[in-house]
Structures are given as structure tokens and as C-alpha cells.
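Cross-posted from the bioinformatics board.
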Amino acid sequence: MPSPHAHARIRPRRTNPEVLIAAPPPYHLERTLQSGQAFRWTLTPAGARIAFDGTVALVRSDGPVLCARWLGPPGSAERLTRYLGAGEPLTEIEDALARDRVLRRILPHTSGIALMRQDPWECLIAFVISAFNNIPKIQLTMDRLSLRFGDAIAVPAGHPAARMFPAPDRLADATLPALRGCVLGYRAPYVRGIARLVAGGELDLGAVASLPYAEARATLLALPGVGEKVAECALLFAFGHREAFPVDVWVQRAVERWYFSGRSVPARSIRAWARDRFGPLTGYAQQHLFAGVRALSRLRN
DNA sequence: CGCCAGGACGATG
DNA sequence: CATCGTCATGGC
């Protein structure tokens, strides 16, 4: 007859151990997750949660480290680190950005934002959905797609059920009404069109990832529902091309107001200007301008 | 209720 | 090549 103590010893542990990920200051987890790069995170008092890499990651910030725990099968700390941009040399980056008079003023409100390295497929679809849309509804659509078409991930009792973002073949086989049920609206054929190209092997996103910026950009621009802005977002947030500079309405207003005395400048000119002005930090400059102008807007309203 | 949303697309000048 | 109306639907 085993004692209660012995029983406790052989009982499998209910939770995976925590993994510590170095994220030295100024790295700022919440700012990074809320900077409009990713749309499938859930922020809770216990930390930020996402279905990622075949499991569920729960991450919280604790000083110079991130404490990560997998609620599903054990995942890869290395891939999570890369995803979160925790290894980015932010001190060096922000010191350089602060030489710009505008960014120097913005940085106190946006410092710590890291550029992420998301999954190209998911990121590309997220920004196709982002077109003529608002952020809460982008999140809603991504969640509904996952709920309807994604694989379930087993999590311990007490945690909300989780599903992966659906693989390309899942969306390729979906009917348009089913996709519209995920509030995709008029973008449904775009999403399914890209899904079919990937599932059919005509578009190899892994191969695109090894292309230089200009060629990767041209490849993305040929896809349905992908214009200049969406392509730049995928290039910056998933493919790691730091010279990308997505110009949305917010960034356009910010640049026109803060650098061009308020006169209107075409988006193409702004991109060229940014690349010339910020060089290898172009993508970071954009991310701080976007976060900065939105923070100021929220402050006024 | 009316306006808006991290734009893309096709049709016109 | 620049401009312009249109697009589906939930937030706010």
C-alpha cells in the first residue's frame, strides 16, 4: 500500500517548468506585443499568452528576463526568443535612433519595442486582413480563423482552450462562406487565394525567406490582396528585412507633420526618404513613429 | 446611428 | 503614372 507521500512523488508534474529568456532593458514585452506587429496575443494578469509553434506559450516579464512556460507540449525557448525579438540589441538601436530629433522625443514613450520574427505565413495573412480594417477586428478575425480551422492544443484544466493559426492547406480547402463566417468580409478570396498558392507549392514562403529584400518584396507584391504596405509589414515583422518601412495612415501623418511641415507627401516618397535617412534602422524608426503617433492620439482622446 | 478602420484593386484622366 | 470610388463588417 503506497503512502500518500510516495504517491505524490511518482505523480507526473502538472505544469512544465519555467524557462528564463534573457531580455535585457530597455526590452519591453507589453510595448512589443502591443505595437501592432502581432494580432493573436492575449494579455492577462498572469502574463501574455499565444498559441505558437505547436504549443501554448505563457510569457511574463520579470526585470531583465522573460519567464516563459508552455501550457501545451514543451516548445523551443530558442524559437520563442527569436519570435519575441528578445535578443535584439535595443540599447545600440535606440541610442542611434535618438540622434534624430523627432525620435528622441518619442522614445521615452516607446522605448523597449523590439521587432519580432513571426511566422511568415501567419504574418502575411494577418496583414492582408489588416487592410481597411481596425485592430480589434483584425484580432477577432485571426481568432475566429484559428477557432474554426486551426488544430487544437491540449492544455491543463483551468486554462482556456487554444488552437493554432490554421495551416495553409486548411484555408485552401475552406469555402468562401465559411471564411466570411470568420468576418473576413471582402478579403476572403484574397486569403484563400494565397492559401492555395502556398498549399499547392506555387509559393514557397521558406524560399522567400532566403531571398534578398527587393526580390522577396516583388514576390509578395504579386499576391492577391498584397500591396506595398502589406508587403512591407510582412518583410519587416516576419522576414527580418529591417530596411522595410510600412507606410500606413498613421505613419504617413506622423512623417508629414513632424518632418515635412505638414505638407502631403506620397507614400512612395516617404519610404525612399526613410530608407535614406535611417539606413539599417529604417524598420525600427517606423515602429517607433507608429507607436508614438498612436500613443499621442490616445492621449488626446 | 453614422463614421471609421495599420489598404488593395480596378477603372479613369 | 497619379487620382478616385469601392470594398464587408465590427468597433467606437
